[in-house]
Request: fold
Amino acid sequence: MVRQRTGDKDRQIVDAAISLFLAKGVRSTTIQDISKKAGVAVGTVYLYHKDKAAIVRRVAFAFAERHESFVEEVLSTRRKPQRKLLDYMLGFYDMWQPFSENSIGALELAEAVIKYAPETLEIAKDRFLSAIESILFEAKDTGLAIEKPSADAQWIALSTTAFFPLAGTPSEHPFRKSLGRNELEGLLKWILKRLEG
Amino acid sequence: MVRQRTGDKDRQIVDAAISLFLAKGVRSTTIQDISKKAGVAVGTVYLYHKDKAAIVRRVAFAFAERHESFVEEVLSTRRKPQRKLLDYMLGFYDMWQPFSENSIGALELAEAVIKYAPETLEIAKDRFLSAIESILFEAKDTGLAIEKPSADAQWIALSTTAFFPLAGTPSEHPFRKSLGRNELEGLLKWILKRLEG
Reply:
């Protein structure tokens, strides 16, 4: 029972921190703000995390855990690999969205993650590639024109890079004005059609 | 004869302005600096351009002219369309390079172009797309798996967007660390292989 409540409090703190960091920035968010929003005592927050940097790390790892659950969910379905690729990459796009905005909150959170939990960016990159690779292995078995799933996964990741910017990317980019979900979906379908031969 | 000398002076002023803008920024560059570097009198610079904004516009249109000459050069060769696509896009990458650096000069010049000559960004985008489209029309004639050259051109442009950032893009981007010329070449070859079927 106690374990259950402990997990709840941890999640409440993480959820509160994420929403405050994104809304008003890491710098302006105090431990008091987080305790208030999470509905726990300030002492409880300190019990879990010694300082704000530790909370940023916890938040970054929470994102990694959500990503992992999502990958496993998509891979375990019985959908066609083409469908899985679309579902996974569009879902990843949705998860990544808060960071593609040029808001102060997103910018500061991205900077804080780069500073305090840089390994989570590598984890995200590796998992992104290996998820695509797993799907392409399946796709190869169903007869798609895939020679080396790991190489093809890298090219697909590279060709969709612009859809996953970190915060702070200038929005005036002439070739990047309308890089929305629809464009990503269109690009993936175009690539899939080429792979279907 | 006078016309010839006039063209020379214009080019000297444009070349001096580009190199100064990129090296020290638009803001710190004075008309005096430009006249000195171009080897012409200050009055001559004012004869051609009423202020720095006008020089920025002239520089932006000079880039558009260079782009146009380059497109025509590539399209007029007797190379295979696949080769033309590589030559054109890698050449465009090289032309775009000064702007992908996070230097003050590149950042300020990009901002000044957005402010004083925004139409040149649209010109660049349209020409980029129509150049790829022309090459794909040729490619279609040689039997490549291209249905609608204009649609295919758009997807190819979109899939390579990340290689043509404006200045100021944060270099810490996890998926963008090593977006070099080699990666662009690899991606284009991968796409071409898919189009060859």
